[in-house]
Design goal:
The complex is a heterodimer. By secondary structure, chain A is an all-alpha fold. In chain A, 77% of the residues lie in helices and 0% in strands. In chain A, helix 1 runs antiparallel to helix 2, helix 2 packs antiparallel against helix 4 and helix 4 packs antiparallel against helix 5. In chain A, 37% of the residues are buried. The longest helix of chain B has 27 residues. Classes of the chains: A mainly alpha, B mainly alpha. Chains A and B meet through helix 4, helix 5, helix 6, helix 10 and helix 12 of A and helix 1, strand 1 and helix 4 of B.
């Protein structure tokens, strides 16, 4: 029941978005596409996550789990469309040039991201007794993310001009930090999409390090970059200049992320060596380990 | 410029069409599990599982909270099984609350977990790991 007002909110948001833009802006830059696609797919996949209420899905337990896990992967992909669209918007505004958001290469990467949103979800379901072809497709699609990975490394060689960096220093710092978290997220996604590695990391804190740890970094940094950019356009006295909170946030999140990876690896090893063990034993062994980290 | 916009729109339409077909196939296709549909008793047990937020601590197929054990194969585990589950439900443990389920409700939860157990293995310890990175999982 609680999903209904949430869905209604997304419908109203989508209606307002498309009503404001369709027919009024020609030659949409990529971030308009990303926001539009993000809203539409968010509505669909949020609905899909609740299809278990229908007996058709609910009675077939493996299908029910497959559809639910499909939706979890895809609505995170939809959310990423919204967030990465915002990052693109801020970068375009910092450079004061929207042409970079209309190029062929930019749209190639948009469609590559869309491919992963639509078909890459199934690496979440490797371990479920689904038909093998679903997992083959997921494996193939997930590996296309290597192209994005190489592109990020290539992109690091290019940069903004010193003047653009100086004028938007906090926004720029947060965008650079989000670059790091996107990179970390992608490295984990690529490794976890290899079925052999997924076999060991599935159901451990490594998954959380990917789905939550790096995502907190991406979303928060892009959000704060947007806020910093807006503030940089206001009077000087309102501009955020202190860098300590920036380093504290990213530093503590980095420690949290490493802790999750370490705990996940520990859990994977423990599960393989203790198939009949009680998880309380793992917790007892891990308590001092958590504190030390 | 107009040509580029048309190309982008056409590409998007192709993507959405392929995605729609793929989704329909996933929804209507079979799975690799030989388990029958959930019985009415098992569905009641699943509702109890959801209403009591069991997944916030326990996992099924590795998904859920990390405080409790994964319960995918708890029923067929020779060291655990049906009576083990029923005993824990109302007795609790250091980190698990005591519930106040009736005998019928406990049976429904066991029916649900038995059905889950029937669908497959987790961890899939007999899966074969290939040199190409592929994993052939063992089905029930």
């Amino acid at each position: 029941m609680f999903i209904l007002p949430i869905l209604l909110g997304w419908f109203i948001f989508g209606y307002n978005y498309f009503k404001s833009l369709v027919g009024k802006v020609k030659d949409w830059p990529v971030y308009y596409w990303m926001w539009g696609i993000g809203i539409v797919f968010m509505i669909f996949h949020l609905s899909e996550a609740n299809f278990w209420v229908f007996d058709y899905f609910r009675k077939d337990y493996v299908k029910d789990l497959t559809v639910q896990w499909k939706s979890y992967g895809s609505f995170v992909g939809s959310w990423n469309m919204l967030v990465y669209g915002t990052a693109f918007y801020v970068l375009s505004k910092i450079k004061d040039n929207t042409n970079i958001a209309r190029g062929r290469v930019t749209f190639f990467f948009f469609f590559l991201g869309l491919t992963n949103l639509m078909f890459g979800w199934a690496h979440h379901a490797y371990i479920l007794p689904t038909l093998p072809w679903i997992r083959y497709v997921a494996y193939a699609v997930s590996m296309t993310e290597w192209i994005i990975f190489i592109r990020i490394i290539y992109g690091w060689r290019k940069s903004l001009t010193p003047r653009e960096k100086k004028e938007n220093s906090m926004a720029y710092m947060f965008i650079r930090a989000s670059d790091f978290w996107v990179f970390a997220n992608l490295v984990m996604a690529l490794l976890m999409s290899i079925p052999t590695l997924n076999f060991f990391t599935h159901g451990t804190h490594v998954t959380v390090a990917h789905s939550m740890g790096t995502t907190i970094g991406i979303n928060t940094c892009i959000l704060l970059a947007s806020v910093s950019f807006i503030l940089s356009k206001l009077e000087v006295k309102h501009r955020p200049t202190r860098k300590l909170p920036f380093y504290m946030f990213n530093g503590s999140l980095f420690v949290f992320w490493i802790t999750l990876i370490a705990m996940g690896l520990k859990k994977a090893v423990w599960e393989l060596n203790n198939p009949d063990g009680h998880i309380g034993e793992l917790h007892s062994e891990s308590a001092p380990y958590y504190i030390r980290l | 410029m107009h040509k580029r916009i048309r190309q982008n729109k056409l590409t998007l339409m192709i993507f959405i069409t392929v995605c729609a077909v793929y989704t329909v196939i996933v929804y209507s296709g079979k799975t690799a599990s030989s388990a029958p549909y959930l019985s009415s008793q098992a569905m009641e047990g699943e509702k109890l599982w959801q209403d009591n937020n069991c997944a916030s601590c326990h996992q099924i197929y590795g998904l859920g909270g990390y405080l409790g054990d994964d319960l995918t194969n708890v029923i067929s585990n020779p060291h655990k099984g049906e009576n083990y589950v029923k005993a824990f439900l109302n007795a609790g443990s250091k980190s698990m609350p005591k519930f106040n389920f009736t005998e019928e409700e406990k049976e429904q939860i066991v029916q649900f977990l038995s059905h889950v157990d029937w669908t497959g293995y987790y961890p899939n310890v007999d899966a074969e790991l290939g040199k190409d990175g592929w994993v052939s999982i063992k089905y029930k």
